[in-house]
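Memo to structure team: turn this sequence into structure tokens by end of day. - J.P.
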Amino acid sequence: MEDSTSDIDPRLLEILVCPVSRSSLEYRRETGELISHKARLAYPIRDGIPIMLEAEARHLDEPNPADA
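Reply from structure team:
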């Protein structure tokens, strides 16, 4: 199984948007997340696949469980 922080295709990052705010996303390699600053959500990347579900996203004001 690949590390959850594995790189994703840059072309995919160009077309992905936040499903909540429809805004662009910032890729954070160190946390393995796509960040929507407008919606204040962090979408996880698992096995190189972005999980773009609001129910799976972490609110930015919550601690990252990967840091624990």
